[in-house]
Design goal:
Layout lengths: L6 H14 L15 E8 L2 E7 L6 E8 L6 E3 L1
Antiparallel strand pairs: 1-2, 2-3, 3-4
């Protein structure tokens, strides 16, 4: 089930997309800069995002969560 992002969640997706450009796809090794992103789960402390490679269609889920200090977020 894909969720429609709020403006804040849309910003998180933009940040994930910008970070994905330098990450190689685990399936084909190409950069994930043009990957498809879909929100899968939104909670107070994390957002799960499904990423699909446009070349080989490999799909994986990453979790974005804020750090408790410093005002930054980590992508795992």
């Amino acid at each position: 089930m894909s969720l429609e992002p709020s403006p804040a969640q849309g910003l998180v997706l933009e940040l994930v997309r910008a970070s994905a450009g330098s990450v190689p796809c685990p399936g084909c090794g190409q950069p994930l800069r043009d990957c498809r992103l879909e929100l899968r789960q939104v909670e107070l402390d994390r957002i799960a995002v499904e990423m699909t490679c446009p070349r080989c269609q490999h799909t994986g889920v990453i979790t974005v969560r804020p750090q408790t200090q410093g005002g930054t977020a980590t992508v795992r």
